[in-house]
Specification:
The chain has about 150 residues and is an alpha+beta fold. The protein has three helices and five strands, in the order βαββββαα.
Amino acid sequence: MTGDFNIHDSLWDSLFSHYSSISDDLLIIADSFNLELLSPINQVPTRYSNNDYNSNFIIDLIFLHNGSSKLDNHLIYLDWCLTSDHIPLTIIISISEEHINSRKRSIIKNSKEETLFIRDLISSIRNFHTFNLSDKDSLERVVNEFTKVVECA
């Protein structure tokens, strides 16, 4: 989760001397999604004012999944802002190559196999006990039963 949260706070900006209770709300929401605030490698403001009357602040933040040891930092490139008053936050996420075996079964439309498949499904589904699906466990039981019927058919 990343973006301009527009919250000035001493929790992530040591040059800002105030604390905001809104920051607590943000951290609680992030935590509810199992996310934690990252600290940049280079601690610099992420929003730069266009005039001399306003200060520069850290208001752009990145939250990542708790315990993401490989994702424990990000960089702020000051020279990437171009015409924006916000500096882009960047992070490198390594993606390892992984081969996932998958297979797809298919039946030719209007074939004898399709007719037999549908007949087997209808016959099996008629035997399902769906009259008392009053809780999650009974629903899961019927769904698992249906999955087995489709696999067998």
